[in-house]
Design a protein that fits this description.
heterodimer; A: 20 helices; about 80% helix; about 0% strand; globular; B: mainly alpha
């Protein structure tokens, strides 16, 4: 079979299976295995065992369940509300008031718990009723929560990044460190946007006389634990004390301590955290196996090589290639959730981007930003659904409209990353210099 | 459910091993680089069937959710039939892989020299259990397909935590 026929076969199989609602992991394995059988008979199937074994028994992936446990503990221990209230007291003076605390609360909380959706949901539960009571503009509230929540996968620790690393064979520590500056910068851009909007139109975020809580030590005490947790985890990676797995284990330990401080360290919480870890880990890592089988199928049949050569023979400038990839992810992001989208496309894209000379760390950060965009673009934007569920009967369009400006900010941000790649690459270089 | 409990325990073991062995006695652990990997494999494969039964496997449900009950049952049947067939082959090759590794006495490259077939054994076991679960789904879909009363199977009926996506 020629590679063209073969790629048409693979893509058709995959699309038909997915459209019929087949579980993504099984669809990938089916496509990969049938491709292998058609090109090489039964022989290449003998590699299935070692592919599965090697893709999971890796040091890269072992932090995944640990970070989920850490996040789930943080999520349930009751720190979210206190954290938000503490933060609100300190950030009230900024233009946009509590909207600004939405962004910061979401980004810090999301970094700690690692789930964008859970963050938007948790912080949203706390803040939406309060902000609506105070007459804040609804789309602004939803937008800030949706966008703030997505920062969780860019600001490390981030599970999406770990999975990316396991596919492209990059160092998790390096990608984590690379995510820090872009994450903070993006959060800052969101805040600038809110600030400008609110200065131009103060009625979006009315000032309220009842918020005269004092900037007490108490409120500081509520803010600090999460900052400590993140700096602990990231600091140990940056300083080179710990690998990502060790940092995750330390993170779990610290999250237990924090939960104990907030009296949230109960047996049901711990149990639920582990159940969630099992469920999510199984789901994602089985897709990883699927992606690896699919990827092996593509490589074995020569599609990867032929396609890469073909793309290179077009002599696209790397910028055009990047635009094409961006477009692909924007379209897919409307249909499929982020990590599945990444796992479906990376087997095909990985050889191409490597051959085209992209920096894999830089590309990883760009992909993560694209996934973030996918989370807040309708019709399939997980964050939007969660917020809509909490919105006290506001129309879905209002949630989507509020998020739109942030999509534009993120797209501009991608462009900025393209022209100034040092935003991503600077910090990892510093780390290398330290070590 | 037994499986899920087992997997949770396995994860807990990973966590405890990691936290205790590394952060407290970081210098002395020789197994800490190798065992988390094995435990992760065990966690993933032994949790597969349970995750599947609880609707934890994600799918692209844009079209699927708009299918009528008949079509849903039909799609479920075809998909799980394909899934079962593929998984049987997959399980067979995992089994073969472990047999090979047992026969050739492959050991880990670490100090413990663990014979690799032991941690690898969970792969065919987990995969076989998943196959059985998918087969059950297929049978249920077949029943719905032939019975007059074709209701949509509610995959999320088990009370799972609300928070779903960790990604």
């Amino acid at each position: 079979m020629t590679w063209v026929a073969f790629s048409i076969f693979s893509i058709t199989t995959l699309v038909v299976l997915l459209a019929a609602g087949t579980w993504i992991a099984i669809a990938l394995i089916t496509t990969g295995m049938s491709g292998l059988y058609l090109t090489g008979g039964l022989r290449p199937l003998m590699a299935l065992g070692s592919i599965s074994w090697n893709s999971i028994n890796s040091f890269t992936l072992s932090p995944v369940p640990l970070f989920i446990v850490m996040g789930a503990i943080i999520l349930r221990c009751g720190i979210a509300e206190r954290f938000y209230q503490g933060l609100a007291i300190w950030l009230r003076a900024l233009p946009g008031g509590l909207l600004q605390s939405n962004i910061i609360a979401c980004s810090v909380f999301a970094a700690a718990c690692g789930s964008s959706v859970a963050t938007a949901g948790t912080i949203g539960t706390v803040t939406i009723p309060q902000l609506q009571r105070r007459g804040y503009d609804n789309p602004m509230v939803f937008g800030s929560l949706a966008a703030g929540g997505t920062l969780g996968i860019l600001i490390p620790p981030s599970i999406v990044m770990i999975i990316y690393c396991s596919i492209v064979d990059e160092s998790v520590a390096k990608l984590f460190i690379a995510g820090v500056v872009p994450g903070l910068l993006l959060a800052f851009l969101f805040m600038v946007y809110i600030g400008v909007r609110c200065i131009l139109n103060p009625s979006l975020a009315p000032a309220n006389a009842e918020d005269q809580g004092k900037r007490t030590l108490r409120s500081l005490f509520d803010i600090l634990p999460l900052f400590c947790l993140i700096s602990f985890v990231m600091g140990s990676i940056y300083a080179g004390w710990a690998t990502a797995t060790e940092a995750a284990a330390i993170g779990v330990f610290v999250s237990f301590v924090i939960a104990a401080m907030y009296r949230g360290l109960t047996w049901p919480n711990i149990k639920l955290a582990h159940i969630e870890a099992v469920r999510t880990t199984c789901m994602v890592l089985f897709i990883v196996i699927g992606a690896q089988v699919f990827s092996y199928g593509l490589a074995y049949s020569g599609v990867s090589r032929a396609l890469t050569e073909y793309v290179l023979s077009l002599e696209l400038s790397s910028f055009v290639l990047f635009l094409a990839i961006t477009l692909l992810y924007l379209v897919l992001g409307c249909l499929i959730d982020g990590s599945s989208m990444m796992l479906l496309t990376l087997p095909v894209l990985y050889p191409i981007i490597t051959a085209a000379g992209f920096d894999l760390v830089w590309f990883g950060v760009a992909v993560v930003v694209l996934i973030e965009i996918g989370m807040i673009t309708p019709p399939i934007g997980l964050n939007l659904f969660v917020l809509h569920g909490l919105s006290n009967g506001r129309p879905f369009a209002e949630v989507a409209r509020g998020s739109l400006p942030y999509v534009i900010i993120m797209l501009l941000f991608l462009l900025l990353l393209w022209f100034v790649p040092e935003i991503v690459l600077w910090l990892p270089k510093q780390m290398a210099a330290n070590a | 459910m037994v499986l899920s409990a087992l997997s949770i325990a396995v994860i807990t073991i990973i966590v405890c091993a990691e936290v205790l062995l590394r952060s407290l006695f970081g210098v002395s652990t020789l197994i800490a680089t190798e065992f988390p990997g094995y435990l992760l494999v065990a966690n993933v494969f032994l949790g597969l069937a349970w995750t599947f039964r609880n609707g934890g496997f994600i799918r692209v449900d844009l079209l699927y959710l708009n299918f009528g009950p008949r079509l849903t049952a039909f799609a479920d049947f075809v998909m799980s039939a394909v899934g079962t067939a593929v998984l049987i082959i997959y399980t067979y090759y995992l089994y073969w892989f472990v047999l090979q590794s047992h026969a050739t006495h492959v050991t880990s490259i670490y100090v413990t020299r663990t014979p690799l077939w032991i941690p690898q054994l969970v792969m065919p076991v987990g995969s076989a259990l998943l196959t059985i679960s998918v087969l059950m789904t297929m049978l249920r879909a077949a029943v719905r397909l032939v019975s007059a009363d074709a209701r949509r199977e509610d995959q999320q009926k088990n009370s799972m935590p609300e928070v779903d996506s960790w990604l």
